[in-house]
Amino acid sequence: MIEFRGVTKQFPDGTVAVAGVDIVVPPRKTTVFVGSSGSGKTTLLRMINRMVDPTAGQVLIDGTDVATLEPVGLRRGIGYVMQNSGLLPHRKVIDNVATVPLLRGEKKAVAHARALELLDTVGLDRSLADKYPSQLSGGQQQRVGVARGLAVDPNILLMDEPFGAVDPIVRAELQQELLRLQGELGKTVVFVTHDIDEAFLLGDQVVIMQHGGQISQAASPAEILANPADDFVADFVGANRGKRALHLTEVDGRRIVVDDDGRPAGVLAS
Amino acid sequence: MNLLLDGIAWILDPANWTGVGSIPERIAQHLAISATVLVISALIALPIGTLVGHTGRGKELVVTVSGGLRALPTLGLLTLLALWLGIGLQAPIIALVVLALPPLLAGAYSGLESVDRRTVDAARAMGMREGQIIGKVEVPLGMPIIVGGIRSATLQIIATATLAAYIADDGLGRFIFAGLKTRDYAEMLGGSILVILLALAIDGLFAIIQRLVVPAGVRATRTRELRSRPPRPRAVVGRPITEGNPE
Amino acid sequence: MNWLWSNLDLVGELMLTHLALSVPAIILSFVISVPIGWIAHRYRWSRGVLLSLCGLLYAIPSLALLIALPIVTGQRTTSPINLVIALTLYGIAVIVRTAADAFDAVEPDVRQSATAIGYSAAGRFWGVELPLAGPVLLSGLRVVIVSTVSLATIGAVIGVQSLGSLFTDGLQRGIQAEIITGIVATMVLAIGLDWASVAIGRMLMPWWRPSAAERRRTLDRVERVDAA
Ligand SMILES: Nc1ncnc2c1ncn2[C@@H]1O[C@H](COP(=O)(O)OP(=O)(O)OP(=O)(O)O)[C@@H](O)[C@H]1O
Ligand SMILES: [Mg+2]
């Protein structure tokens, strides 16, 4: 369990990126931080592995304040996947995946064997192991990034817009893959995105962030849709319009569901 | 044309290949002084440049100092030091070290600076220590530019070591100054040709090294980019690796 | 200081001589480099060859070049013209790369829209590409100014009069003040010419506002040439 208690971050230049955040990230579930650009999502995420230290408040992992932990060791125990995959361009795929175990002093043979298994886990062909990141497609690089995040079998996996830079088709594929993986592995996943559809698809808990680094609402997708906390949330999730505002109409005696623009979304199964 | 032939004849004259102050001896001296200076200045400049490039701190200071050093006329520094320290190798060595610092510093810090900050960030997020980030990520990726700095510094040293013969009885420059005194243009020219050949050979050697130190994964990107991208200003500093290799 | 007061005439005269050597070399190398840089930018195949040649030129030690040049030019080694030619060659070696980069940096969109509104090829060069490449060209020129002024002193060891003569003479006669005066005078000349070039740049490019970022980039370029 990860807990934020009254966490605030003000950067030296005066920007308040996160203001008084209280939130609990439940274990073995996916929590998604969603919000527009600059709302402090990345900052919040990076406080978990101490890439950023809060200026006020505490971040606790299983009851321990991370401020009391040594950052390098902490980071080695937490998986981190970022938007541009962050792979080391001068190392082969297999070495990238095995980086952290090797840093931790594992034997090379063991680390490499495990890395190969991880390639299977994330759905990559083992023949890619000896390629360099630049020789892979964006989607493949992102999978390698996920494999690297899983390399030390961490309990916590931090993902910062991991699918932000790939095209929509590949993104949909990667999203499904992540759902499958999470079903198998049951990690505590903290996921950042600014795509509300992605948040609803992946999140057990969705945290909606507002500009200035405040939380507008944290709840399950269904609750948010049913009970948006305020107009900002309602507007952000588009509850009143577009393809989320579904209505029933009757055509030839069958009940059809249509969206706000009158486009059919499906039939109502009874 | 006769002049050139005279110079070549001087080089080929067997008399100049033996005895005290022979061509091989002068070449060895030239290389020895250059190597000494390179090692000393690299020991000073590379760690500082690496640190500045890694932390991003102190860049302004380094740029200002090395800019000032560049405007300093070589010969002025050399003669001033010679006046203080007397005839001999001390003055040229110090002058040469001072002159080699700016390119070495520039190469080291711009090499590290050229590494994508996101890659460095990812390395840190994975749990690399600062030293590991420098050693395993920034230095290997910045190596072509670091070597570029060493290459420029070396050329600068070889050129200035020629001038050093004005102060000390050392190196290939001796032929130039000896020829100047006895009005023997053949000897001056012969010495100059030797210096030029030496500089070009070393430059070529560095060109090869610079190519070899491009990390394999980066080379893979580069070839792909060359095919698909329109000409763009290089973001990297240093002598481009594609040189002499028209895309 | 005493030495300086009693030799003001000499220093002034040598400064003028020094200017007469370096200014023509700076102007010549700029005028010659811009078209070469443009060719390197425009025709990809020529780029590698031209830039390699400049790299080779740059690698040649200056003293050796001064002595070897007369084989080609027919000048005496001690003639000022010989020195000006050598300085010009070094200047070219430095600016051509910057000039190619400067033209590369002109946005393709701007170029295309210039063509689209009816600029001829020549009109586009003078009216669009050259002005837009101006700031980067100027930064290259500034590097050349500093290096040329400092390099011109080398001629003194083979007998070409310049501020460098203060070094050789000061060493022979053991006058420290003379050498220091020479160093300061050389640096003053370099800085003065540098300012002048910026002033002229402002005049020719009134739209150009060197931002803090750009000033930093100019410094970077200095470093780049260095690492190059
Ligand atoms: N190192 C820093 N120094 C100063 N300000 C910063 C720093 N990092 C982030 N900020 C500022 O803090 C605010 C929040 O940044 P953050 O990166 O957390 O936003 P985000 O929600 O992740 O945005 P995005 O969706 O664009 O990634 C922004 O206004 C940003 O400009
Ligand atoms: Mg972010």
TrEMBL record, chain A:
<keyword id="KW-0547">Nucleotide-binding</keyword>
<protein>
    <recommendedName>
        <fullName>ABC-type quaternary amine transporter</fullName>
        <ecNumber>7.6.2.9</ecNumber>
    </recommendedName>
</protein>
<dbReference type="InterPro" id="IPR051921">
    <property type="entry name" value="ABC_osmolyte_uptake_ATP-bind"/>
</dbReference>
<dbReference type="InterPro" id="IPR017871">
    <property type="entry name" value="ABC_transporter-like_CS"/>
</dbReference>
<dbReference type="GO" id="GO:0015418">
    <property type="term" value="F:ABC-type quaternary ammonium compound transporting activity"/>
</dbReference>
<dbReference type="InterPro" id="IPR003593">
    <property type="entry name" value="AAA+_ATPase"/>
</dbReference>
<dbReference type="GO" id="GO:0005524">
    <property type="term" value="F:ATP binding"/>
</dbReference>
<dbReference type="GO" id="GO:0016887">
    <property type="term" value="F:ATP hydrolysis activity"/>
</dbReference>
<dbReference type="Pfam" id="PF00005">
    <property type="entry name" value="ABC_tran"/>
</dbReference>
<feature type="domain" description="ABC transporter">
    <location>
        <begin position="2"/>
        <end position="237"/>
    </location>
</feature>
<keyword id="KW-0813">Transport</keyword>
<dbReference type="InterPro" id="IPR003439">
    <property type="entry name" value="ABC_transporter-like_ATP-bd"/>
</dbReference>
<keyword id="KW-0067">ATP-binding</keyword>
<dbReference type="InterPro" id="IPR027417">
    <property type="entry name" value="P-loop_NTPase"/>
</dbReference>
Automatic annotation (TrEMBL), chain B:
<keyword id="KW-0813">Transport</keyword>
<dbReference type="GO" id="GO:0055085">
    <property type="term" value="P:transmembrane transport"/>
</dbReference>
<keyword id="KW-0472">Membrane</keyword>
<protein>
    <submittedName>
        <fullName>Osmoprotectant transport system permease protein</fullName>
    </submittedName>
</protein>
<feature type="transmembrane region" description="Helical">
    <location>
        <begin position="145"/>
        <end position="168"/>
    </location>
</feature>
<dbReference type="Pfam" id="PF00528">
    <property type="entry name" value="BPD_transp_1"/>
</dbReference>
<feature type="transmembrane region" description="Helical">
    <location>
        <begin position="27"/>
        <end position="49"/>
    </location>
</feature>
<dbReference type="InterPro" id="IPR051204">
    <property type="entry name" value="ABC_transp_perm/SBD"/>
</dbReference>
<feature type="region of interest" description="Disordered">
    <location>
        <begin position="223"/>
        <end position="247"/>
    </location>
</feature>
<comment type="similarity">
    <text>Belongs to the binding-protein-dependent transport system permease family.</text>
</comment>
<feature type="transmembrane region" description="Helical">
    <location>
        <begin position="61"/>
        <end position="87"/>
    </location>
</feature>
<keyword id="KW-1133">Transmembrane helix</keyword>
<keyword id="KW-0812">Transmembrane</keyword>
<feature type="domain" description="ABC transmembrane type-1">
    <location>
        <begin position="27"/>
        <end position="206"/>
    </location>
</feature>
<dbReference type="InterPro" id="IPR035906">
    <property type="entry name" value="MetI-like_sf"/>
</dbReference>
From TrEMBL, chain C:
<dbReference type="GO" id="GO:0031460">
    <property type="term" value="P:glycine betaine transport"/>
</dbReference>
<keyword id="KW-0472">Membrane</keyword>
<keyword id="KW-0812">Transmembrane</keyword>
<dbReference type="InterPro" id="IPR035906">
    <property type="entry name" value="MetI-like_sf"/>
</dbReference>
<feature type="transmembrane region" description="Helical">
    <location>
        <begin position="81"/>
        <end position="100"/>
    </location>
</feature>
<feature type="transmembrane region" description="Helical">
    <location>
        <begin position="48"/>
        <end position="69"/>
    </location>
</feature>
<feature type="transmembrane region" description="Helical">
    <location>
        <begin position="179"/>
        <end position="200"/>
    </location>
</feature>
<feature type="transmembrane region" description="Helical">
    <location>
        <begin position="143"/>
        <end position="167"/>
    </location>
</feature>
<dbReference type="InterPro" id="IPR051204">
    <property type="entry name" value="ABC_transp_perm/SBD"/>
</dbReference>
<feature type="domain" description="ABC transmembrane type-1">
    <location>
        <begin position="15"/>
        <end position="197"/>
    </location>
</feature>
<protein>
    <submittedName>
        <fullName>Osmoprotectant transport system permease protein</fullName>
    </submittedName>
</protein>
<comment type="similarity">
    <text>Belongs to the binding-protein-dependent transport system permease family.</text>
</comment>
<dbReference type="Pfam" id="PF00528">
    <property type="entry name" value="BPD_transp_1"/>
</dbReference>
<keyword id="KW-0813">Transport</keyword>
<dbReference type="GO" id="GO:0005886">
    <property type="term" value="C:plasma membrane"/>
</dbReference>
